[in-house]
Amino acid sequence: MARNEEFLEKAAALLPKLHHMRVFPLTPYRGRTLKAGESLCLDFGDHYVGYVTLKFSYTGSHPDAPAWLRLKFAERACELSENAAEYHGWISRGWIQQEEIHIDVLPAEISLPRRYAFRYLQIEALDLSSKYDLTVECVEAETVTSADDGGLAPYACRDAELERIYAVACRTLRECMQTVFEDGPKRDRRLWMGDLRLQALANYETYKSYDMVKACLYLLAGDTLPDGAVGACLFLEPQIEVDDTRMFDYSLLFVAALRDYVSVTHDGDTARELWPTAKRQIELAKASFDDRGIVRDSDRLGWCFVDWNLRLNKQAPAQGIYLYCVQAAIELASALGLTDEAQTLRAEYAEKKKAALSRLRDDRGFFLSGEAKQLSWASQIWMVLGGAVEGEEAAGLLASLEAEPTAEKMVTPYMVHHYVDALISCGREEKALAVLRSYWGGMVREGADTFWELWNPDDPGESPYGGTIVNSYCHAWSCAPAYFLQKYFRK
Amino acid sequence: MARNEEFLEKAAALLPKLHHMRVFPLTPYRGRTLKAGESLCLDFGDHYVGYVTLKFSYTGSHPDAPAWLRLKFAERACELSENAAEYHGWISRGWIQQEEIHIDVLPAEISLPRRYAFRYLQIEALDLSSKYDLTVECVEAETVTSADDGGLAPYACRDAELERIYAVACRTLRECMQTVFEDGPKRDRRLWMGDLRLQALANYETYKSYDMVKACLYLLAGDTLPDGAVGACLFLEPQIEVDDTRMFDYSLLFVAALRDYVSVTHDGDTARELWPTAKRQIELAKASFDDRGIVRDSDRLGWCFVDWNLRLNKQAPAQGIYLYCVQAAIELASALGLTDEAQTLRAEYAEKKKAALSRLRDDRGFFLSGEAKQLSWASQIWMVLGGAVEGEEAAGLLASLEAEPTAEKMVTPYMVHHYVDALISCGREEKALAVLRSYWGGMVREGADTFWELWNPDDPGESPYGGTIVNSYCHAWSCAPAYFLQKYFRK
Q1: Which pLDDT tens digit goes with each residue over B399-450?
Q2: Residue B102 and residue A90: Cβ atoms within 8 Å?
C-alpha cells in the first residue's frame, strides 16, 4: 500500500472528538424480574450509538448458579424476532449485535466493552436457577457522536412530512458521524469512499463539520492501494489501513468528493495538495477503457459498486460515473488554474462521452449495459449525471424509464440519491421532491428513526446479504434528504 | 439468618492466599489458523483452575467483520462434543463453561474475566468473514489454588495403580482448594458441609492446611440458618451468606467435621468455641424423631442428602447419620470435659440405636427405609458407621448386600467414601482397598485426571441433573483415596 505519512498526520489532527451523553430506556422496567426463559425488551425511544451498562440484582434465594443472559441490540424492533442461527448469508454473522454473558455474582454491574447501534435492547434470561429471579435494576447507555447537535442547521417549512424526513435524515447522519464518517454504526463502521461523498454533501447543509470531511479525504489519500488508487474503504484500527477492495466507481468518486469539498469551502490548499490523488484516479480509470472508448465490462464481483441490485450490469453506469468524475476533475483543475490539464481532461471527456452516445444507446435513446444490453435505471441516471445527455433530453430519458417495467431497478437509498440528483440536474425539482416524499417518506411511514441501508418498497425483506438480520438500519448513504431538502427545498 | 461476626472475622483471618502459576497448552497450536466454522482443541495436559488469556491475529486481508468465537472449557474431552442447547435438565445451563465473544479489532489480546475449571479449551470460529482467517497466537492460563504443592505428603508404595489413584485424588483436592474448600471448581464452587468433611479428612493426610479447615468451620458456624442450624452450604460472594438449603445430614455432619478437626489438631480453643454450634445440630435433629425414636421420613425433596441416587429413601440412612454424629458429639463433649453433657448424649445415643435395631431391621438383619421398606446400601453403611451394628456383625451385613441385586445402589464417590469407611470400621481393610482399586481405579482407567462428582460404573452416562454436560469432573467429595490410602494403606 502507498502511505503518505504527512497526509495521515494532517488527518489525525483534524479528526473530531466524540461527544458523550447518557441516555436511559423509555420503557418502564426498573425492578422488573425475569425468570429463566423470560425476556424484557427496552426501548430507548430513538436511535443511539454507544456503550451500555446494566445493573442486575435478584429476588428469592441467594443465586446458586450463574445467570446466563443473551443481550440483543436492535436498530429496528423487527430484528429482535430474527434468529441469528438461521442466517446463512455470505456476510459474517459476527455483525449481528448479540451477546451472551454469564454473571457469577449478583448484584452486578456489567459494562459491555463493545459499541452498539440501537434503539432496542432485549435482555433474555437464557438460564438462571429455580432459586432466584433476575432483577433488572438499571440500564443506561453512554452514547457517542461527533456531530454537534447545537450546530445543526434548522429546517422549518410548513410541511410536517418533509420536516420529519429531514429530521430522520439528520439523525442518520449524526449517528454515522463518529471519529470518521462511518457508513453505518452497526455495520461496517468504516469510512467508505462512495458513502463519504454523500455524507459530506449532507453535512455541508446540516452539521457543517468541514474539517471532518477534510480529515477523511486526507485519510483516503494518505493510504492508497499500491498503484495510488483510493481504496473502496479504510480501516482505522488498530491503525489506519486501506482495505484491499478496489472498486472502479469508489476510487473515482474521490475526485467528486474533493470537488464538492472545495466548492463549499474554497479551501485552495487542500485542493492543491490532494489534486495529484484526484488526478491519479482518472488516470487509473482511463486504463479500463477498450479501444472503442467504452469501460471494459468485468466478471469480477464488485469491480464497480453502483448499487446493491445483484442483477445489475455495471458497464454503462461505470461509463457515466467516469464522465461525472472527469467533469469534477475539470472543475478542480480550472479552480487550481491548471489550464493545460483542464484542457486535456476536456478532450478526454468529449471522447468518452461521444463513445457512450454512439456505442451504448439504443434506438429509443436508452443507454444499455454489458453484452446482454441490459436496460437499467442506474445506467440512465449516471449518464444524465455524467452529462452524456442534458436538459429536456435527460429529463425525457429519466421519465421514459417509468414506462419500462423490465428496466433493472434501484434497491438502495444510495442509488436513489443519484436519481434525485439527476432529476434536479435536468430541472425536474418537482419530481425530485416527489421521490424524496415517496421513497424516504416511505421509510418514515414504516417507522424509521434513521434511514436504512436498503429499502425496496416492492420487497421490504430484500437483502443482498442473504438475510435481513445483518442489514444496517442507520446508513449514512441514505441521508440524502438532509442534503436535498436543505439545499433545494427550503420553502 | 443468625450471624456471629466474631466467628466470621476469625475465619477471614485464617483463609488462605491463592498461589498463581502460568500454564500453556501442550497441543502444538501457535500460528494455527481457523476459517469460519473451524475449531481448534487445546489440551493443557492436566486439570487446572484459572483464568485464560488468548492472543489472536489474522492472515489474509484486514478483517472486515468482527470475529465471533465460541470458547468451550472442559474438564473431560467428552464435554466438548456435548451441545449446551440440548441440555434441558433442572440445573442451570449457566454452569456450562461456554462463552461467545466478538473481537472487533485484530490483533487482540483477550483476558476472559471468569474462572474456569478445565484441561481442554476448544476455540470455535462461529463466523469470521471470507477475507481473513483467524490466527491463534498464544493461549495461556493463570492457574489458582491455595494448596501448597511443595507441602504435599508423598505416597510411595510399590503399587503403581495405587500411586496413580493417590495422585489423582490429591489433584482433585488441590483443584478444589481455593479460598475455601469448594465442592467443585466447575460447579458449584461453594463450601458444602458434607463435602467439606471429606475434603478435610483428605487434607489432614496430604496438604495439612489445618487453618483452612478451621476457617471453614468458623464460616459455617458464623452464618447459620435462623434456628442455628448449619446450612447445607455457604456463599462467599458478594459477601458471606448461608444458603437457605437445609439438609438433615449436612447440618449434623458439622459435628463430625469438628470432631475430626479436634482429634487431628488437638485445638481445644476451637473445640470449646464451636461446641455450642455442634450441640445445636444434635438438638435440632432430635426434633425430627417420631415417638418410636425413628427419624420421621419426609416428602420434601432433598430434606436429607445421603447420595444422588434419586430413588433412595433417606429415613434409615438419616437414622444412621444421626447415630454417627451423636457419637462424634460424645467424643467432643468428653474431650472438653463436659461429663454431664456426654452422659446425656450417651443416653440419647442408646435410645435411638435401640429404636433403629428394633424398628428398622428385617429378619435378615437388613435395615429397611421408609414406608416401602426399601433396602439400600446407604442404610446399611450408615448404620454400621453409626455403630448400630459392629464388628463381625457389621462386616457380615455389608458383605450380604452383595447378594442383593435389588438393593438401591450408591452412585456418588461421596457415598462410596462412607462405604470404604464402614468397611474399615469393621475390620475389612482388604475389601476396602479392593473398592478403592475398583471404583476410583475405574475412573483412572477411564482417563480421569481428577475424580468425578458422579460415577456409576454400570451407567457411566448417569446424571442426577438430567444431562452430563453440567456434571462436575473434579469434585472434592471424590478425593477419598487421598485419605484412605495415606492413612491405612501405606505399605
Answers
A1: 999 999 999 999 999 999 999 999 999 999 999 999 999 999 999 999 999 9
A2: no
CATH class of B19-145: mainly beta
CA dihedral sign, ordered A217, A221, A225, A228: positive
Q: Using CA atoms, how far apart are residues A451 and B259, in angstroms rounded to an integer?
A: 73
Contact between B325 and B385 (Cβ < 8 Å): no
Asked whether A49 and A30 are in contact (CB, 8 A), the reply is: no
Phi, psi of B346 (to 5 degrees): -65, -40
Q: How confident is the model at residue A1 (pLDDT cuts 50, 70, 90)?
A: low
Residues of A in Cβ contact (< 8 Å) with B62: 235, 241, 243-244
B166/B173 Cα distance (integer angstroms): 11
Q: How distant, in Å, are the alpha carbons of A207, A484, B138, B165 from that of A204?
A: 7, 11, 47, 76
Q: What is the DSSP letter of A286?
A: H
Burial B221-253 (b: 16+ CB within 10 A, else e): bbbbbeebbbbbbbbbeeebbbbbbbbbbbbbb
Confidence at residue B1, expressed as pLDDT on a 0 to 100 scale: 60
What does the domain layout of chain A look like in residue ranges?
19-145, 150-488
pLDDT at A246 over 90: yes
Hey, are the CB atoms on B92 and A65 less than 8 Å from each other? yes
The answer to whether the CB atoms of B106 and A238 lie below 8 A apart is yes
Pull the grid cell for residue B30: 501457535
Question: Among B487, B8, B7, which Cα is nearest to B203's?
Answer: B487
- Sign for the pseudo-dihedral over CA of A8, A12, A16, A22: positive
pLDDT in tens, B12-38: 999 999 999 999 999 999 999 999 999
- The Cα-based distances of A109 to A61, A100, B171 in angstroms read 19, 15, 35
Best to test chain B binding among A35, A64, A83 (most B CBs inside 10 Å): A64
Q: Residue B370: enclosing H or E segment and its boundaries?
A: none
Q: Is B139 exposed, middle or buried (0-12, 13-18, 19+ CB in 10 A)?
A: buried
For residue B55, list chain A residues with Cβ-Cβ distance below 8 A.
none
pTM of the entire predicted model: 0.96
CB pairs under 8 A between A and B: 91
Mean pLDDT of A61-73: 98
Residue ranges in chain B modelled with pLDDT below 70: 1
The set of cell numbers assigned to B344 is 446425656
- A65 — pLDDT class (breaks 50, 70, 90): very high
Residues in chain B: 491
pLDDT at A356 over 80: yes
Say whether A94 and B128 touch across the interface (CB within 8 A). yes
Do residues A179 and A491 make contact, with C-beta atoms less than 8 angstroms apart?
Answer: no
Domain A150-488 in CATH 1.10.8.50: no
Please give the mean pLDDT across all residues of chain A. 97
Nearest CA in chain A to B241: A62
User: Would you state the pLDDT for residue A157?
Assistant: 86
List the single residue in B61, B67, B107 with the smallest CB-CB distance to A238: B107
Q: Is A241 within 8 Å of A190 (Cβ atoms)?
A: no
Residues of B in contact with A67 (CB under 8 A): 94
Distance CA A195, CA A250 (A): 9
- The amino acid at residue B381 is I
Q: Contact at 8 Å (CB) between A323 and A353? A: yes
Pairwise CA distance, residues B318 & B376, whole Å: 12
Residues B465/B467/B473/B476 CA torsion (nearest 10 deg): 10
pLDDT digits (tens, 9 = 90+) for A144-178: 999 999 999 999 888 999 999 999 999 999 999 99
In whole angstroms, how large is the CA radius of gyration of chain B? 24
- pLDDT score, position B157: 86
